[in-house]
Amino acid sequence: MRKVYVDNAATTQVDRGVIDAMIPYFDNKYGNASSIHSFGREAYEGMENARKQVAQLVNASPKEIFFTSGGTESDNTAIKGVALKSKDKGRHIITSRIEHPAVLETCQYLESVGFKVTYLPVDRFGKVSLESLSKSITKETLLVTVMHANNEIGTIEPIREIGEIAHEHGVIFHTDAVQTAGKIPIDLNKMEADLISISAHKIYGPKGVGALFKREGVTIETLMQGGGHERGLRSGTENVAGIVGMGKASYLANTRMEDDARRITDLRNEIIKKVLTEIEESYLNGHPTDRLPNNAHFRFSGIEGESLLLSLDEKGIAASTGSACSSKKLMPSHVLMAIGLNEVQAHGSLRISLGRDNTNEDIDYVCDSLGVTIQRLREISPLWKREKVTFA
Fold this sequence. Notes:
Blueprint: E1 4-5, H1 16-22, H2 38-58, E2 65-68, H3 71-85, E3 92-96, H4 101-112, E4 116-120, H5 130-136, E5 141-145, H6 159-168, E6 172-176, E7 195-199, E8 210-214, H7 240-278, E9 282-285, E10 295-300, H8 305-314, E11 317-318, H9 334-338, H10 343-347, E12 349-353, H11 360-379, H12 382-391
Parallel strand pairs: 1-11, 3-4, 3-5, 5-6, 6-7
Antiparallel strand pairs: 2-8, 7-8, 9-10, 10-12
């Protein structure tokens, strides 16, 4: 059976070059990076080279890059770190309604310990309202945290403008760039961001490692005490092999980004065109143009998303209904509800996220399989029959 993986927003296959770069650090370069002997120095040098490679990906200084266990830890460190460090200034945080759970649940935790959080609305495409942001900032506001691009519908947010508004009021700005780093250019000499979160496994690197960019001069509270690793910000023996893998993945993403984005965007546009023209009552979720190169997110009338996923899986196609962190939950996507869909529409959605290895043949197979599967599911769907009567 043909197998096609189009769930690259959930995770990517580790690049062979990344695996090759990591192997020595499991084998003969296995020292603790804090040790002063040759084994330790080798590990430390590998880690610091990776720090430079991650910094180059986002045009930052290596001393502004701190390694973590992934995007979730980076988000927690940034948000809680600012809140705890700056609580004497105020206790107000601004975020959006469509953030990843790593941001939303961190903000909800802070609400439970005395902070106030404003959740900005978005329009039908998932764009944050800049007017609402400006009106929401008060003298108590200490942090704005809005994602660079949405992990479900792929909409790219107006990050430069958001950062400018925050900084006009002396407020720190954090963005979750887990879905954008390595896919679209990030230049932190131009982007008005004080903190950004990155994850290795979204860019063909290993799981369990990520990074936090913290602009020089920005101070945050340390959340993990111990041996003072990562210049005192994140104690704990470093995952050297994983960090080396993240560095190599960052280097490869930096060198391939332009070509990858151009080719994957063409594939994305082709799949959007085919689905919207060939499948009755299919709709694109998210912004039609300001979206991630690899993201195509659809909803289909009369279809239940989990049934569609399982049917596609039987044909060897791996896709998603939304965020991988939420895909096993029965609740409708908070992102789709925020852009104005009802529960039935939200449950009838499908996320296709393309990767470096996808081909035109993959697109044809996915589209053909989608058409056949949706027709079959609609034939047995009482929801589709009711809708057809309603719209007749």
